[in-house]
Every structure is written in C-alpha cells, then in structure tokens.
Amino acid sequence: MILFLLLSFIAVVAAIFAAPLRAKAWVSLALTAIGAVAASVKAVGVLATGRTVRLWCIDMPMFGHDSGSMDGLSALLVLVIAIGSIAATLYSRGYLAHHLPTKSPAHVALHYTSLTLMSLAMLAVVCSDGGLSFLFFWELMTIASFLLILFDAERPEVRRAALSYLIMMHVGFVLLIVGFARLSAVCGSASFDALPAYFAARPVLPLFLVFLAGFGMKAGLFPLHVWLPEAHPAAPSHVSALMSGVMIKTGIYGILRVTAAVPALQIHTIGCILLGLGAVTGLWGVILAASQNDVKRLLAYSSIENIGIVLLGTGIAALGKAAGNETVALCGIAGALLHTVNHSFFKSLLFFGAGNILSQTRTTSLNALGGLARHMPVTGLLFLTGTVAICALPPLNGFVSELFVYSGMLTGIAEGCDTLASAGALTALALIGGIAVLAFTKLYGTVFLGSPRTPVVAEAEEVDALRIGAMALPLAGILAIGLFPQYALRLVLAAAGFFMTIPEGAGELPAVCVAVCRTVWILIAVASCLAWIRRRLLRGRDVRRAATWGCGFTTPNVRMQYTGESFAEGLQAIARPLTHDRCEGSAIGRNELIPGAHNFDIRHRDRIGTLFSAWWVEALRMLNGRVMRLRTGKINHYVLFALAFLALIFVLSTFDLL
Amino acid sequence: MKILNLLLILAVAVAIPGTINRTRARLAGRRGIRFFQHLYDVRVLLRKGAVYSTTTSALFRAVPSVYLGAALVAMLFIPVGDLPAVLAFDGDLIALAYTLALGRTALILAAMDTGSPFEGMGASREALYGALSEPALLLILGTLALLTGCTSFTDLFTVGCEGRYTIALLLSAFVLIKLVFTESGRVPVDDPRTHLELTMIHEVMCLDYCGVDLAFIKIAGWCKTAALSLLAADAAAAACCPHWWFAAPLAVVLTGCSVGVVESTQARNKLVRNTTFILTIAALAALVFFTAYLLQLNIVLS
Known about the structure:
The complex is a heterodimer of chains A (about 650) and B (about 300). With about 650 residues, chain A is mainly α. Chain A has helices spanning about 1-20, 25-50, 70-95, 105-125, 130-150, 155-185, 195-200, 205-220, 225-235, 235-260, 265-290, 295-325, 325-360, 370-375, 375-390, 395-415, 420-450, 455-460, 465-485, 485-495, 510-540, 565, 570-575, 605-610, 615-630, 635-655; strands at about 55-60, 65-70, 545, 580-585, 600-605. The longest helix of chain A has about 35 residues, at about 325-360. Chain B starts with a helix and ends with a helix. Strand 3 of chain A pairs parallel with strand 1 of chain B.
C-alpha cells in the first residue's frame, strides 16, 4: 500500500515534470481521469448494488490497522469529485494558456502536479475509513491546494491569502488529530466505524464539537469561513472552482459522517446545533455575498451560504431522526446530499464563468464590467444557467434540493416534530433564498447586462471551445438533475443509507420528484408556447431599435448605470452591522449642490474577518518577533537548546511535575 | 373539477383589476371606466409593434414569456375553495413561492439589461422587497401547514380545520392580503399610477417594454395577484365556509375592495419606509405562526 502510494506519487511527479510545456495539462488531465474514472466505476457499482466495497486494508507497524472502503456516501462524493476535477483540469488548459510564457516550466509543472495530486487525494479522503490514512490524504489535499492558490505568488495578496489558508487549515487539522486521537484512545480504533461505540459510551458533545470545528474549517462554517473569501479571489479560477465546488464538500462529508454516528437519543441537541449554525452560516454568507463588488469574492461568500443550506438540511434530518419521523429525516438528508452535489455543479460552472471574465477582460470588479452577454454570448448563457440554478429557481437543479429541505421543514411543522425549530429554519432559508436572488441578479445584471463600463470590456471576445467544453460538464449535471429529479433522487437515496435505513419505497419523495418533473416541463412548455405566440404576433409588424428610454433625459451615459454597489444599497442599509466598511476618498457631501470631481471607493469587509487583523494579532506578531531572536542560525546554540530542554525534562521529572 | 378550478382562477384574475378600478371610482364619487376596460387596453397592446433598446440582448426579449409563464404556472398550484388544484403534490407550497421568484428574477434581469439608471433603481428595490417578503410568505404557508397537518395546497384547504383555529386562519388571510399589496406593487408599497420614475418600483422596471411584451407583463401581474388573493380567500374561507362558490367571489371582493380603499385613502410610503413595512409583515407572520402554535399546543395538552 505505502509502496504503491509512493510509486504513484513519483509517477505523477515524473510524468508531469517530464512532459513538454504545452502537454503538461493533457498529462495531468489523463492522470486525473485515470483515477477519477477508476473510482467512478467502483462508485457506480456501489450505488447500484448498495453494498459497501472494501478498498484497502493494511496493518502497519507502529500505526496499527488502517483501511479504506466505499459506501453510498463515499460513492456519491467520489462522483462529485471525479466530475469536478476532470472539468477543472480540462478548463485549466485554456485558462493557463496565456500564462505559460510568463511562468517557468517548473512552476507550471508544480501547479499541474498539485492539481492532479489534489484530485487524487480528495478521492482518497472520501474513501478512507478514518484514522491515519484519512489524516494523511486530508493533509495532502491541504498542501496541494495551498500550492495551487500560490500560482500567482508574485502578488503579495496571493501570498497572504495562501498563508492564512494554510494556517487555518492546520488549526483545523490539529483539531481533527485531537478528535481521532481521542477516538483511538477510547475505542482502540480511529476509524469512523468506531464513532457510534464512542458516542454510546461517552458524552457526545465534546468530541462532536471538536470534529465539527475541524471539518467546519474546511467547509467554511461560520465563523471559520474567513479563509474562503480571501483564497478564492487569489487562486486561479479553475482552482477556485475545484476548491469551492469540490474541496469544501470533503468538510461536509466529515460532518455528515460524524452526525450519522450520533445515537438517536442524543441527536436532538446535535440537530439544533446544526440548524442554528446552518442558519447563521447561510445568512452571513448570503448577506456578505450581496455586499461584494468582486465576482470571485461574491461567489466565495455564496459558497458559504450554500454550506449553510446543506447544514440546514442535515440539521432537519437530525431532528427528524431524533423524533423518529422518517419523512422529515429522509427529506432533510436527501436535500442536504443533493444540494452538496448541486452546489458542486453550479459553483464550478460559475467559477469557470468568472475565469472567462477575468481572462478576457483582466478584471473581476463588478464596477468595471457590464454588457458582457453581447460580447461573450456562450459564457453569458452558461453563467445565466448557473445563476438561475444557484438561486434555486425552477426548472434547474437548485430548486429540487431546496424543495427537499423545505419539505423536511414543512413536514416537521405539519407533523409536530420540533415545530419551532423547523419554523425558525424555514424563515432563515426563505430569507437566504430571497437575498440569494438579490445577490445573483446583482452579479449577472452588472456583469453581463447593460452597457460596458470600460473600453476593455467592450472589446472582450468569447473564450476558446476547450473552456466551453469544460463548462458543459457541470452544465449537463445541472440540467439532468433539474429536469429529471427522480433519477437524481434514486442516486441520493442510495447514498443516504449511511444516515438512516431508507423506508420501503422511500416515502412520498419519489412521487414528489415525479410531480416536480411534470411541473418543470409544464413551465418550460408554457414559456416556450408564449415565446412562440409572441413571435407570431410580432411577425410582419413594425419592430424597431432605439436608445433606452431615459425618462426625458436625452444624453444618458454609461456612468449613470446602476452599479453593483447601488443595486445592493437597500440591503446594505439594513445589514450594516455585519460589515466593516472601509472607505477611501470622500463621497459627495450633502451640501454640495454642484459637486466637483470625487474619488470614492468603499469596501464591505467581513466583521469576522477583521477580527483576525485586530490588536491581538499584532500582539502575537510582536511576541513571535521576540521568540524569533532564539533562531540564531548557529549550530552550537541549537545544541545548547537541546541540552536545556533535556535538563528541563530532568528537573521536572525529578520533582514529579510531569 | 380541475378545469372548473382553472376557469375560476382566470375569472378572478380578470375580475380583480376591474373591481379595484370600480371601488376607487366609487370612493372618489365617479362612475368609473368600464369593468373590463383593462382587457381592451391589453388588446390594443397586443396589436402593436415594438421598439427595443439598442442596449438590450436576447434575454430582454425572452423575459416577458418567462414572466408570464411563471405566473401562469403559479396559478396551477392554487385551489379555489374545496376544488383540487391542477398541479398538487406535497411541497407545492414551496413550488409556488419559487415559481413566483422565477418571474421576479426574470423581470429584474430584464430591467438591468436596458442599462437605464431608472430601471436599475426599480430592479434593486424589487429584489430587496422580494427578498424581505419571502420569509413572510413562507411563514404563513408554514402556519397553514401547522394548522392542517398537510403540505399541499389542495389538502390544506379540503381537509378542514377545527373551529378553534378560526382566528389563526383569518389572521393568515390578513397577512396574505398584505403580501398581495407588496407583491403586486400597490399602495402603500408602490403606486402603479405614479408619474415619477424615481419613485416607481414595478412600473419602472418595464419602462422599455411596449406592445406584446407589455401586454404579457400586465397579464402576468393579474395572474400573480389572483394567485395570492385566492390563497388569502381560501384561508379566510377555510375558517367558515370552505367552498369554491364562496372562495372565488371572496378573493375578488377582498383584494378588489381592500386595494381600492387603501389606494383611495392612503398615501404611499416613503421609499425608505418600505423595508420597515415589509419587515413588519414578516413580524406579523411570525406572530400569526406563534399564535397558531399555541392554539395547537392547547389541543395536545388537553
């Protein structure tokens, strides 16, 4: 096993470093595809038969027993990871094409090696049973993604974002080590299978919270989300797509595994915690998303929002399980799982779209873009699909998963299973959905519609077919799940076995899916009929083109257009306490009747994010500076430190203080 | 039965604008325009050609069909009294909310497509008010689910409620009527008859539409209003007389008269007050939910 790992690692590195510059992407794609397809074949088998497949099982000296297997949940995640990583690698070929001359071949090779290793590590993470191999692949995934973010390491903000990512991930990693070590100490095994035994014997909450924080760090749980909006804009777009679409799902995977192991007696508290966290995470994410004026930051915050929705689903499922209400539990878990899949599709698509915008216009600032739908029609259409899907509007996939989560809540209310908690979650989810519409109409409206705000944007061209092809992959998923939800449901039910025993016929969900399918097709049919009628009516009539009606004002210009900032101004007025506004320059004053030239820039920073740049960080940095004086670089000093340490240990143990 | 249901909804959709106009005219001491004048207006629009802004893309042309399509599909979820809805399944409460949201999103995007600052203004307001009224709508739907134990409109209004829930049902109907005001852009949130683009919300979003497209948007507006008014009427009717022959006229009278009276007697809100107004509706909805919850607890205890 270890030998196999080492060999494949060397093979990946060697193959990518040896390949010619232009072919590195293809080698990386081939290697990723081999791993992804092999794992997907297994995963499809697991989902079809419902049996758990053992993948590896070894006994290591010192570290003990370690195994990996694939059950329904792993299989579902494997499919998500496989599609996401193939699309991202394919996309990177076109996206990095114009970077190739400016970067050294070793740099590019390192990037592609990390990309491949990250995809493979993610596949391995969801297949590990826990313990050592899980932690190993988890760490590999972190390091690889850290290197991926660092692609543009010349820019200081990229280095800062990557560093903060690395630090936060390692805090999470330490928590996971603590969790697994505790598990191992009590149960003698550090695998997820040992969790139920632990939870049955010991208090649930401490270990659960440790795992929740550890996994939540990766998933972007409030208040551990601060790395997300920094890392995503810093990373190249395919990396953002991979991290946001796929990697944060490994955090969700961990949370789901731990939640599933909690016995039914204690799961009520856990459900309430998850619901509360989900509501806060979702609301915080979506309100901050609506305040952002950078495409990638907005998308990053919306990832946090979607993690919140998944948690809401999980929480509802937990409450249902606690109350013994199968329908609620099933709706919740099916919604959470399907939303995980859905989010990976539309978020990949949207980040690829952001990559297209960045590479064609060299900016991601909402206030510089505009009117791109006419210059980049295909990207515009794909981005629109992603927008509709992420707003959970019919007829696309986001609607289906949110419908499940909502159904869980409504059934909970109707059947008296934690009515108040369900109602609270319902309110939160409704608000999240509403503000998500605001955030994404702002994004699409200012970037793709209206008139271009800068000359560069007006000259943007459509991207190459390869990148469009990469975007077609998630698009296919969005359409398939949205238009034929009953098949997606079957997939999700096959995966939900880890959480609960699926009742015969899976309750009312299949019927609901068929009805949703019918509704969606009726909607499409009605809208197309109307479009056809409209065409018929307008045929042969006088259809002209003229300037936009300026309400009597005859010389409108581009600068009068509504910007992203002005679009979200109403929400800003309500949500001011959540953000820390940083202004540069001066705004037009109230008493200035004839304003002169002003230069004004406002940024809405995350209040939680600013916590990490507060005084205590400075204090820590100063302390660190003091300690760094010990690093003299002289070997004799270091030997002295070792001696001092030994002496300390000796003294302490003599006085029995250890 | 389903056909009858659909026909009734269409009739309600056509009757409400006429009733509003009539009420307003009578309160002002006028005789008022013809009851079906709005139909003639739309017929004129349907015969016209079109002028499109040079800034707009294909999306702008597709939106009226999507907007009207969404409104029509939303109507299919609504039962009239004890008649079954055309489309009924567990969770159609959510489908209704999100179908309406689809229409709203489409119109917001179309407004942004023109690049006009006025339409951007309208779009921004519509997005904000839509976002804030969503929790109120879902909480009221949740209340109805709590009272009846069902999660589908058709079951909701046919299963029948116990007498003690009357007050909660009437309060739900009240909040739903308030939502009709915000969703269909009526005073005090928005004034469809205002002449000043700066203060418009819904009307300013379709400034650049004309002819067939504008007709589609107008019809969609009637459908949306009818759908929500029927919900309110159903909730009110469920408290006393849950039959279709009572619910359908009730919807017309309830919305037609309340909108007409409010528009004749009240001034519209200052725009900054609108958020407070909508949040108040949401708070009311939460209160109604809590009342219903307490009522329900009472039964469990005794």
